[in-house]
Amino acid sequence: MITIERFILDQEEKYPEATGELSNLLYDIALAAKIIAAAIRRAGLVNILGSAGATNVQGEEQQKLDIFANETMTNALNHTGRVCVMASEEDEQIIPVPSQYPSGKYAVLYDPLDGSSNIDVNGAVGTIFSIYRRVSLEGRGSEADVLQPGCRQVAAGYVIYGSSTMLIYSTGQGVAGFTLDPSIGEFLLSHPKIVTPRVGKYYSVNESNFARWTKGTQWAVRGFHGDRPEEITGKNSRYIGSLVADFHRNLLAGGIFMYPADSKNTRGKLRLLYEASPMAFIAEQAGGSATDGVHRILDIVPDNLHQRTPLVIGSREDVGYVADTLRRMGEG
Ligand code: AHG
Ligand code: MN
Ligand code: MN
Q1: Which of 66, 259, 273 has most ligand 1 atoms within 8 Å of CB, for mutation?
Q2: pLDDT of amino acid 232
Q3: 28 in contact with ligand 1, CB cutoff 6 A
Q4: Cβ of 192 less than 6 Å from ligand 1
Q5: Average pLDDT over residues 217-225
Q6: Alpha carbon 89 to chain centroid distance?
Q7: What does residue 136 show for φ and ψ, rounded to 5 degrees?
Q8: Using a 6 Å cutoff on CB, does residue 118 contact ligand 1?
Q9: Ligand 2 centroid to 197 CA: how many Å?
Q10: pLDDT at site 122
Q11: What's the predicted TM-score (pTM) here?
Q12: How remote is the CA of residue 265 from the centroid of ligand 3, in Å?
C-alpha cells in the first residue's frame, strides 16, 4: 500500500537537489482535493433534498460549490510560503498571496471545478492544476509568473470526482494515478505508470457544433465516424461535457478529445492556462499529444490570463490524424 505522501517522497529522493517544497505543494493540493471531494459528495445529497421543494437552491448550491472549490484551493495554497502567486479560472485577476504570509517560489494555476454543469445530475467533475517556477525577480509574484508556456510547467495534474475520487499528476517523469480510499481518507497509488494507447478507440467531441466547424474539422470527425476507412479506422463516440472525465477515460482506454474552434467560438472554448496546458502536460507525459489542431499546446506563449484555445488531445496517432487533415485542407 503506497500513499501519495510516500510516493511523492520516494520520487523526491531521486533528486538530491530537491528541497521538498514541490512535494509539500502537491500534498497541499491533495488536501484541497479531499476537502472538495467531501463537499461534492454532500452536494449530491443537498441537490436530492432540494429538488423536492426549492428549485432555486439547486442553482445556488452549484454556484456555491464553484466558489467553495475555488476558495478551498486558494486557502490551501496561499499561506504556506511555497507559492508567490495564483491564478484561477474563477478570478479575473491574478491572486496575490496575502501580505501576512511569506512568498514562495512557485506559481499555481487552477480550474477549481471543471465540468460544473454536471454537478446537478451527479456527473463526474474535476479540479485541474498547473505549477510553474517563479520567473519574476522581485516583489511578491506577478502576471509574468503565470503567463508562461506550458512546456515550462514543473508539475500538472487533475482530480476527478467520479465513482471514486482520483488524483493524477506528473512532475515530468511519467504520470501516476492515486485513488482516494474514503475509509482512511488517503490517496493510494493505484496507477503507478499511466501510458495512453498510441491509437484510441474513442473520440469525444460536442457534435452539436458540427455545422459550425471548419471543413477540415468536419472531415476529420467524419473519419472518426468511420466514413474514411482508407484514412482511419472508425471509433466509438463518448462525450460527457466534462473535460476531466472525458480526458480521463480516453487517457486510460485510448482516445481523442477535441474542442475545436467553431464559427461562434472562433478561438475554441477551453482555457489555455487552466485546462489545455495542464492536460497537455499529462497527455505528453503519458505518451500522447495535444495540439490546437496543428500546433503543440505546450509551445503556446500566453498573452492573456483567460485566453482560449482550440484543443485536440489524446492518443498520438489520432491527434496526428487531425493535424494532417487540417494541414492538407489548408487550415494549418
Ligand atoms: P467549466 O465547468 O470549468 O466551465 O468547464 C466546462 C468545459 C469543459 O469541462 C468541457 O469539456 C466543456 O466545457 C464542455 O462544453 P460544451 O457544453 O460546449 O460541450
Ligand atoms: Mn473547466
Ligand atoms: Mn471551472
Answers
A1: 259
A2: 98
A3: no
A4: no
A5: 98
A6: 12
A7: -70, 145
A8: no
A9: 24
A10: 86
A11: 0.95
A12: 17
User: What pLDDT is recorded for position 121?
Assistant: 84
Cell 480526458 belongs to which residue? 247
**b or e along 33-65 (b: 16 or more beta carbons within 10 Å of the residue's beta carbon)?**
bbbbbbbbeebeebbeebeeeeeebbeebbeeb
CA atoms within 13 A on the CB side of 194: 29
Q: 15: CA distance to ligand 2 center in Å?
A: 33
Q: What is the DSSP track for 249-267?
A: HHHHH-EEEEE---SSSBT
Q: CA 112 to CA 105: how far, in whole Å?
A: 21
In order of their start, the domains of the chain are 4-191 (3.30.540.10), 202-328 (3.40.190.80)
* pLDDT score for 44: 66
Task: Give yes or no for residue 286 having a pLDDT over 70.
Answer: yes
Ligand 1 pocket check for 243: Cβ under 6 Å = yes
Q: What is the pLDDT of residue 65?
A: 83
Q: Looking at ligand 1, which atom is closest to the CA of residue 257?
A: 11
